[in-house]
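Rotation project, supervised by the postdoc (A.L.). Task for the rotation student: set up a whole-complex structure prediction and record inputs and outputs verbatim in this book. Inputs entered:
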Amino acid sequence: MPTIKLTVNAKPVTMEVEARTLLVDLIREHLKLTGTHVGCDTSQCGACVVMVGGQSVKSCSMLAVEADGQDVTTIEGMAKNGELHPLQKAFHENHGLQCGFCTPGVVISASDLLKKNPSPDEGQIREWLEGNICRCTGYHNIVKAVQQCADEMKGGA
Amino acid sequence: MDNFEFHKPTSIDDAIKAVDGKDEPKFLAGGQSLIPVMKLDMAQPSDLVSLAGVATLKEIKEDGDTLVIGAMATHATVAESDAVTKAIPSIASMAGHIGDAQVRNRGTIGGSVAHADPAADYPAALVALNATVKTHKREIAAEDFFTELFETALEEGELITAIHFKKPKRSWYEKFQSPASKYAIAGVCVAEYDDGVRVAITGAGNKVFRHAGMEKALSGNFDPSALDGVDVDAGELRTDVEASAEYRAHLVKVMAKRAVKNAR
Ligand SMILES: Cc1cc2nc3c(=O)[nH]c(=O)nc-3n(C[C@H](O)[C@H](O)[C@H](O)COP(=O)(O)OP(=O)(O)OC[C@H]3O[C@@H](n4cnc5c(N)ncnc54)[C@H](O)[C@@H]3O)c2cc1C
Ligand code: FES
Ligand code: FES
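Outputs recorded:
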């Protein structure tokens, strides 16, 4: 079995995995980080989105061996020193989640957007989040939360 | 999903060697089509040869009247590339509207072209923009490349290295997209060259195709109104859950007019 070495939420991980192991299964089954969800088997829902090498990707559509040598961040790695990430705080304040199933993927995806475009308008936020399906359909507050976070981060937060 | 051997070569030569003599080898690019297909057991490769370590396959460059996009350039890279935006802006715009942000971060032009989904966007650009598919051993004209539904002229173990597009005077691509997948229900790419206009249609038929009637009309007058009198025959188009052949025929004309209007 291939041995892979990667960093997950700033912690080094070395392990043997079958080549066919999906990244999401490494994260959920092997590392027990169950904040990353699986919502579909057609690569369309975005519940499984994590950061790999500084880019948001669907961890259900990538092999664990492809993440060898890379930095991976899941929702569990967003809060720092007991402080919520500004996006998490904004979701909390804006009621940006209902059941919360889609939230980890949405938050990671939105963090990738804000890295590329620190001041997106509403249309750009909606377009970027096309790959994240919220079955509770609470899109208004999701967009509001991302917008508030962008505004606050610009304010030097 | 069945297990397989995973290989990660760092050169084209080693990638070719890695597939040689294997039972059922497959190249792995962005995995945005192949991994979903493998999860459904619709492909069961014995060996997966990842192309992610072959740096030369990612190159994008202008070469005289040609724009060269390496097979492993992701949709996101192409969408954001200054070289692409300057040489052929329609390709950058097209790439920026494939799937969603995460699909664009992983999916590549080489994978899209090799997969040859009848509703994929890139095939329309390749055919309209008179492209050549470069493989590790030969060159294939785009029109000869897409042979049938999900079928291409690629031989077993043949690796796409780059796509060479011929720079037009102006071009554009418009699609009517599936709200779920973003694939084209009907997508039209128009390109104007000194010797005439090329029109390629994706999503509407079983594979990408050119439309002689539209090309003739637009070669005489590159204006949306030139398409008013042109017939799009629904008989050659697909009917599926997303649209009837008749509706697709209508959409093809609307998308073609928009593409002509927006051409740059
Ligand atoms: C949710 C979703 C939405 C999508 N929406 C769209 C859309 O709107 N429009 C669109 O066009 N596409 C869409 N796609 C498909 C996407 O563009 C894929 O990225 C693309 O079809 C395959 O590219 P890939 O790099 O992921 O290839 P892979 O999935 O890695 O490979 C696909 C096939 O190509 C072969 N291959 C890969 N690279 C090479 C090469 N260099 N030489 C020879 N063979 C090769 C592989 O062996 C495999 O058979 C979507 C996909 C998803 C999951
Ligand atoms: S689980 Fe639905 S996109 Fe990954
Ligand atoms: S909050 Fe329930 S799926 Fe989005």
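Student's summary: The mean pLDDT of chain A is 96.
Supervisor addendum: DSSP finds five helices and five strands in chain A.
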